[in-house]
Amino acid sequence: MIEKNYKEDFPLLQTNKTIYIDNAATAQKPAVVIEAEKRFYEESNANPLRGFYPLSLAATEAYEDARKVVRDFIHADSEKEIIFTRNTTESLNLVAYSYACSHLKAGDEIAVSIMEHHSNILPWQMAARMTGATVRYLNCEKDGTLTDETFAAGINEKTKLVAIGQVSNVLGCVNPIKKISKLVHAVGAVIVVDAAQSAPHMPIDVKDLDADFLAFSGHKLMGPMGIGVLYGKEALLEEMPPFMTGGEMIQSVTTEGAVWAELPHKFEAGTVNAAGAAGLAAAISYINKIGFETIEQRELELTRHAMEGLAKIPHVHVIGSEDPANHTGIVAFTIDNVHPHDVSEIMAADGIDVRAGHHCAQPLLTYLKVYNTTRASFMFYNTIEEVDAFVESVANVRRRMGYGE
């Protein structure tokens, strides 16, 4: 049973009485995150990694301390394996440009699940065009399940890279990454995991998953926008060329060329987002204080309550599994004869924030023959009362569209 009201920790949710259930797009920020970023600018604002005066040293310390927090959060072996980027998209592009484009060739295959966010499809299409490789899609069942037959057909001796999300941003299903990793490594390929939708909701151990690369965004786990993470196995990162070149990512420069800096700085060109890193570290600390056991329990209760409510409403169809435990807080649905954009507008008039459209997953929705949905996505700070208001608003949509029911 949900008891504590975590909304008290979030300034926006105190000043703005909106019912915010678009958390899969971006999460709200607790006061500790806002304060951490503010404190960096008030107390440590200088260019990190470049100065030997106290302010710059303090900025460097804050930035590198954040890297250690991330390392521990995902159980990486070393800070060298933690690359700070802007977001999941940039992290995945880094792997595509730096690893895939330097390792793939004509005749090679990249396997990508059909349920991926565009950010985990387009980089591989680009890499395929540049190298002559082929992108092969792993189709799922309607509930998001990837079968053994699909793996057997889609992962073979030609496969050199497999890109897959740990959690679908439309279906909410959790993919068996550890199992997939074994299949991928058995054919000598590498696995790239999009953890944008999993990192906020469940513990991640990159060593247990045996992920070669794993990416996530700060803003989805209550950290600042503009800070993301790429984890990569040290041996793979060592052999990869830089994604971008410029300041700080070098050891030395001559008029003819350069010697790159050691990991992780080889991949962090230019002035870094040290304040964002400090905010991300605060968000992770906040999550650790609450604990994933509590987070998962609360979000499952919210999801179950929402799905039970929607099941009682005529003309409403939830996409994906019938089991709330297979949704990770994500409930995408359609309403007969009402476009999701209209659903979203009506709900916005009720003070409820949901997402409508293809959710940057057009191949999945085309495959499912749904094309557009309305998506509610819950976080542990949502409440049962908010879910009730959401269900009531959905129940009134068709009547307000003039259908009389």
UniProtKB/TrEMBL annotation:
Reactions mediated catalytically: (sulfur carrier)-H + L-cysteine = (sulfur carrier)-SH + L-alanine
The EC number(s) this enzyme carries: 2.8.1.7
Gene Ontology biological process: cysteine metabolic process
Aminotransferase class V domain residues: 19-390
InterPro entries membership: Aminotrans_V_dom, Cys_dSase_SufS, Cysteine_dSase, PyrdxlP-dep_Trfase, PyrdxlP-dep_Trfase_major, PyrdxlP-dep_Trfase_small
Domain of life: Bacteria
Cofactor(s) this protein requires: pyridoxal 5'-phosphate
Molecular function GO labels: cysteine desulfurase activity; pyridoxal phosphate binding
Pfam family, one: Aminotran_5
Keywords recorded for this protein, A-Z: Pyridoxal phosphate, Transferase
Database matches in PANTHER family: CYSTEINE DESULFURASE, CYSTEINE DESULFURASE 1, CHLOROPLASTIC
Record-stated family: Belongs to the class-V pyridoxal-phosphate-dependent aminotransferase family. Csd subfamily.
Protein name: cysteine desulfurase
Name of the gene this protein is made from: sufS
